Amino acid sequence: MPKSMGDGKPKNFGKTVKRFAACLKPWRWSIVLAIVFMVISSILSVFGPMLLGNVTTSAVDSLTSTGALDWGVISSLLIWLAILYVASAIFNYLQNLVLALVAERYGQKLREQILEKIAKLPVSYFDQHQFGDTLSRMSNDVDTIASSLARVLAEVFSDVIVMIGTLVMMMVISVPLSLISLLVIPFSVFFISKIAKKAQDCFRAQRTILGEVNNIVEEDYSGQLVIQANSYEPQAIEKFGKTNQRLYNASWQAQFFGSMAYPIISVFTNLSYALVCIIGGDLVIKGKLAIGQIQSFLQYVNQFNRPLSGVAQIAANIQGTMAAAERVFNFLDEKEEAPDAEPAQIVKEVKGKVEFHHVDFSYNPEKEIIKNFSVKIKPDMQVAIVGPTGAGKTTIINLLMRFYDPTNGYISIDGVPTREMKRADVRKMFGMVLQDTWLFSGTIEDNLRYGRSGVSHDDVVKAAKMSSIHHFIESLPHGYKTEISEDSDNISAGEKQLLTIARAMVANPPMMILDEATSNVDTRTEQLIQDAFAKLTHGRTSFVIAHRLSTIRNSDLILVMKEGKIVEQGKHEELLKENGFYAELYNSQFADS
């Protein structure tokens, strides 16, 4: 059963932050440039309240001394104030632009890393994990990181710079008033630390459940035909509703705790602001501070508290970003396929001699699937593998293709153990036609060229004719250039199977693996598929997983499997004469007739 990743206890938050920062190293100079722009913008904005205070002081002094405003001094100060704010806005825009570019580049890199990781993961990973959860990490989590990165970096750095610059200016005006304003910091830090951990847990749960929701949506969409055929809509809706409710609860809690910091801190900042107004007013009355200075100081208090409140407000974004980053990092840390042997053995001319040497295999240590499996297969033989469900037929193919490696024993091709070859080289030796046909969005010709893009159009047509699908393709409005829909729902099941056979013929591999898929097609199409199979396997070593035993009567060797072991082997007539397990399976399929 596939599982969702990231269900366990959260990893160390500090470790995630350090790794996140380390991943930004390729753009460190861009970030440094953005920080320089931040510093300039913040410093310029810090001088604004002081100039505005000077305007007020000049106006009061001129009115007091002459009874009229000194517009020469005031206009000069206002011009400098306008220049300051315009310059600050320009540098602020530049730092936001640079950080936005960094964020998008980082998101692009993460997606590339995830796709590269997918190519390196073993097949066992995809057997054990949900598709929707992996998709959520590549789309939702990376989008969260990319969209939040620029905003978080800009706000955190600029807020810190503004707070430091503002504090310096506050100290210049009045140390006592500055100390009163700083009283809010210990309370703010205390509440932020308490709330942040809870918010982090909630955001992590939100990301995990979102992966589950994506998985259910993907399953319900792809399996809609089966759902409707079985009138399963109410149960499917109920199942989705429960998971969606869990997502709602987790999202609500995440937003609740993430947003709690701002109103709590606002209480303390407003109290400190009131104290400054009372004490500052007394200092102005006593003549210890000018009216413009107290005005500037009150603006600085607002300017100081605004970043402090901003840090609390973006704490939710930081928690969400780190939760998303942790999920992406967890995926990138998944165990990859064991490296290929170095130096790898190469079979230059594949003849098709395949041997299983006392092969044992288990997906988990508690249950052994394949036990002491040994067989020698000569070149050009057609080998049928039959047996009840769970006998290990598909597992044999997985081992042959090196999707898994045997626990004990080994498999050799032309005398060379597959463990000593590169996985890619082993897989190139085989063409596969599976029971579950797979075609991608694109033209029919693109699908037939899949895996061998350099082949000519004439060779594609030749393969289609041999597969008895050429006439159907030509009957389509655009022939070989006809576009196939995403789910290939504009082509019948039999036509899909014939196309996959043609694709295998275009690839022209030295050996073939066939998983028969004729149970859901009409008799005529079944005969076409069987004829195409015969042409495809002619002159090649081939392995056929047989579901209809009537289709493998002419096989050179039939391996009868039961509970992971070969219990019988031989040709069709020989096995019937033995009147053993194969005869029992064969007769059970034709009991009615």
Quick recap:
With 593 residues, the protein is of the alpha/beta class. It is built from 19 helices and twelve strands.
Beta strand count: 12
User: Major sheet: size, sense and barrel closure?
Assistant: 6 strands, mixed
Overall residue-averaged pLDDT value: 80
Helical residue percent band? 55-70%
Descriptive account of the structure:
It is a single chain. It contains 19 helices and twelve strands. Helix 1 packs across helix 10, helix 2 packs antiparallel against helix 10 and helix 16 runs parallel beside helix 17. By secondary structure, the chain is of the alpha/beta class. A six-stranded mixed β-sheet has the order 6-9-10-3-11-12, sandwiched between helices. A four-stranded antiparallel β-sheet has the order 2-1-4-5, with helices on one face. It has a two-stranded antiparallel ribbon with strand order 7-8.
